[in-house]
Design goal:
Layout (H helix, E strand, L loop, with lengths): L2 H6 L12 H14 L2 E6 L2 E5 L3 E2 L2 E6 L2 E2 L13 E2 L1 E9 L5 E13 L1 E5 L4 E10 L6 E2 L9 E3 L16 E3 L10 E8 L2 E7 L3 H6 L5 E13 L6 E2 L2 E7 L4 E8 L1
Antiparallel strand pairs: 1-19, 2-18, 3-17, 4-9, 4-19, 5-6, 7-8, 7-18, 9-10, 10-16, 11-12, 12-15, 13-16, 14-15
Length: 252
């Protein structure tokens, strides 16, 4: 038996009688080289394939987006936005869109990961409003916070620092000016507060206070599975979302 028979005639996972171990191993090596598996990360993604194919795996990772620029503050409010879905586009070498997949999440998602092929959406980040002026109070101990919001947020993931995984529409997470902090008040009680401000000041801009943080236990949402069709030759794959990163696996 020759190498041609082993490489091009034997079915995957089977060994034809008479094939030597050398022929089998060498054939497997050539077969693997001929079908190199590649994973790329970014948004947009530009790459070249040898043939048209269905992507082996497509994952979209989302993070919250804030409007505007610069450090958020009471004078520079930066609202936190999510997305209610995603549109995956595939264009050819002439920048002509050849495939478009529209996926609806059924709700606003601020952070998480979507496995396109299985349809599993893992939501790991949520937005909360701290916009009730009456819930802002001065704590008995102002060492950590000058004012706190009297509501429990115990679903937040625990970090070594109170600022990790946290963003706010009206305050920095550390440094000068007004900044936000989180505090455990007990085993199952977590609150947020501000430093370098007063109760009167916070109540004056309370309607604009938004935060986003990472959940201790992600939420799983099952969506309809989809497949991304890639083109022979040049491909550009993208999602028009500045808070989205694509991880794509395909045969080169």
């Amino acid at each position: 038996m020759n190498l041609f028979d082993v490489l091009f005639t034997a079915k995957p996972g089977t060994v034809k009688p008479g094939a030597s171990m050398f022929d089998i191993l060498f054939a497997q090596k050539l077969r693997g080289a001929a079908e190199k598996i590649v994973t790329i990360l970014g948004n947009p993604l530009s790459f070249v394939t040898k043939k048209a194919q269905t992507a082996l795996s497509t994952k979209l990772t989302f993070t919250p987006v804030q409007s505007g620029s610069g450090y958020p503050s009471p004078d520079n409010i930066r609202p936190i936005t999510g997305r209610s879905g995603a549109v995956i586009k595939v264009a050819d070498g002439e920048s002509v869109v050849q495939d478009e997949i529209t996926i609806s999440f059924g709700e606003d998602v601020y952070g998480g990961t979507l496995n396109v092929e299985t349809g599993e959406l893992t939501v790991d980040t949520v937005k909360r409003m701290l916009n009730d002026p009456e819930k802002w109070i001065v704590p008995s101990d102002t060492t950590s916070c000058d004012v706190v919001y009297s509501q429990n947020f115990s679903d937040r993931k625990t970090y070594d620092t109170s600022a990790e995984g946290l963003i706010c529409s009206v305050a920095r997470i550390s440094g000068g000016g007004v900044y936000i902090r989180g505090r455990w008040m007990g085993r199952n009680s977590y609150i947020f507060g501000f430093k370098n401000t007063t109760l009167e000041q916070v109540q004056s801009f309370a309607e604009d206070i938004e935060i986003a943080y990472i959940l201790a236990t992600p939420i799983i949402i099952q969506l309809t599975p989809e497949q991304v069709q890639l083109l022979k030759g040049a491909n550009t794959v993208w999602v028009e979302d500045e808070g989205c990163v694509i991880e794509l696996t395909y045969k080169e």
